[in-house]
Amino acid sequence: MPTQKRIIQTSVTRNGKKYNVRIAKDKNGYYACALRVRTRSYPSIDDIPVSALKRVEKIG
After folding, report:
1. Structural domain contains residue 16
2. Does the pLDDT of residue 31 top 60, yes or no?
3. 43 lies in which domain range?
4. pLDDT for the residue 4
5. Per the structure, how many domains does the chain have?
């Protein structure tokens, strides 16, 4: 059974750069996602690394 997700934000800004990824929350925490990819879950939005945001934005 798929996990429930709730979209929290539609973009993230880190170090002055805007990343066009969605931030969602599941039972394990927060993650960045796009149409075809998602990161693993992190305890908070600020814990999601910039490298993961770049990867999600690139793959889309």
Report:
1. yes
2. yes
3. 6-59
4. 66
5. 1
